[in-house]
Amino acid sequence: MEASSFLHPSIGFLAFALAVPFFRGGAWRWLALVPPLLALYGIMTVDPGTYGGLPYIGETLVLGRVDKLSIVFGQVFAIIALIGMVYSMHLKDKGHYIAGSLYVAGGFGCVFAGDYVTLFLFWELMSVGSTFLVWQAGTKECVGAGFRYFMYHTVGGLFLLAGMLLRYKALGTFAFTHIDPSAAQYYDWLILAGFCVNAAVVPLHAWLPDAYPRASIAGAVFMCAFTTKTAVYVLCRGFAGWEVLAIAGTIMAVFGVLYACIENNARRILSYHIVSQVGYMVAGIGIGTAMTLNGAVAHAYAHILYKGLLFMGAGCLLYATGTAKLDKLGGLAYKLPWVMVLYMIAALSISGMPLFNGFISKTMTITGAAEAHRTWLAFGMEVAAVGTFISVGIKLPYFAFWGRKREYTGEIRPIPLNMYVAMAMGGFLCTLQGIYPDILYRYLPYAVEHAYHPWTTWHVLQALLLLGFSGLAFYFTRQVITPHSKLNLDFDYFYRLIGKLVMAVICWPLSKIDDVWTEVYRTVGLRGLIGMGNKTAWFDRKGIDTVVDGSAYTVRNIGRAGAKVQTSRLQDYLALAVFLGLCLFGLVWYFG
């Protein structure tokens, strides 16, 4: 084990979260930039190795497993944490900074965990921190969404806990290593199920489009980056080459865009696209070749940047107008021109437009699937790419910034400068990576037989043709996919139905038991209490009152008799003394 010289990225965020309640004034918000800068510095300067070993029940818990895979995820986590903190700097609510810092610390802890115990502890820290980010919105809807979100992740955490404990019982180790699909046991499947909840694998995805649109504006920027991408990391680390992931990821890619195309709320559209884009990554991990694994990692990196920018753009719309529903927006192009420009950079990135980072990452996964002769999987991802451009690249900006309105007539709240700065940072990185893909490719962890070059004539032509036909498809279907004010629940409908049935099954017998108990109490318990009360009252009158009152009467009578004896005449006192003396003599004579 090497000397511990690795500054764990979680330390700064945990320290900041603990210190925030004691800060006063407003200048302390600048300190929110320190933890991500320290994390980025530590990650960029550390050498690969194992750091921070802790002995535990005969095992060594590893807090810092540093290799190419953890470095690339840690790097982009630090970057988006910095951008998210800049985006949040207008906020005065300390709860946001505490919840966000704990959430980010959990993400970093998972990325650098070398064993399942460490992974589980930080996994649950992420769950708690992100739940409070949902609640930070302060609305009635966010309360219910936060509880549902926490319930989903609690169930996922229990799957992970059960799997790791059973695995330890069978193998005697908590080491977090790759699992061979041909030798997988039931406990490995439990661990996979726990990871798939956080990855929003269909049909375990319902928490994502339910909670993310209801999170606070700044909180959603953090949430879109860490939960699902941490799941992508652990799947890449432990379950590469699992066929079930290849199929599930492709289903996610198609399913997400289908629901995004019919959504009305801008943040729900983007949430469904997280499901879709993570599907590319999960499919690449499942296929398991070096090309598709690198594609999954590259796409996770690019996705964190452009998805964060997309949520920042949608957050600006919500901040400025008070709504993210497309049927109530429109005509904002001239009111919020910089929001439109910066949003479109992200929209073109996610759509795979050349010159932007989505083009250099998404095409790698699709090409890797085709080279692995997984034609249907590659075709499914291409179909998803069409839906992505239609829904996020055309539909959302069209109805938000134009929407057949010359000008938005509602009140517009001024957007703070720091929100623009954060969006500009994200837009710059999305464009820089698209133009110079090597600044991302150099960090990819898996060695390939031949380097992938996105800037070939075929790749560029293919992307442009795909985007061109997507635009044409939108033109012919624009009347069909016009936003309507309704809530689409997809699989969440069945989860809520199951919840209602469970509540009915539990509540009906409990209500009957309560009715019977109420009647028993009324006929037996209440009468018994009344009888006990009557007996207590009788005892009070006959027992306690008699003793107390009798003593009082006796003292009073003695006092009265004593008062009568005191006549102030000497002859009376002499007579009394003679009488008492005779009585005393009689007693002595009689008993003596």
Automatic annotation (TrEMBL):
Membrane topology term: Multi-pass membrane protein
Listed GO CC annotations: plasma membrane
One family name in Pfam for this protein: Proton_antipo_M
Keyword Transmembrane helix set for record: yes
Primary location class: membrane
Compartment(s) where it occurs, according to its Swiss-Prot or TrEMBL record: Cell membrane; Membrane
Domain NADH:quinone oxidoreductase/Mrp antiporter transmembrane: start-end pairs: 113-380
GO biological process terms, semicolon-separated: ATP synthesis coupled electron transport
Entry keyword set: Cell membrane, Membrane, Oxidoreductase, Transmembrane, Transmembrane helix
Keyword Magnesium among record annotations: no
Membrane-spanning ranges: 6-23, 30-51, 71-89, 96-114, 149-166, 186-208, 215-235, 241-262, 274-298, 304-324, 336-356, 376-396, 417-436, 456-476, 573-591
Listed GO MF terms: NADH dehydrogenase (ubiquinone) activity; oxidoreductase activity
Stored InterPro entries: ComplexI-like_HydComp, NADH_UbQ_OxRdtase, ND/Mrp_TM
Name the record gives this protein: Na(+)/H(+) antiporter subunit D
Species of origin: Pseudodesulfovibrio senegalensis
Species classification: Bacteria, Pseudomonadati, Thermodesulfobacteriota, Desulfovibrionia, Desulfovibrionales
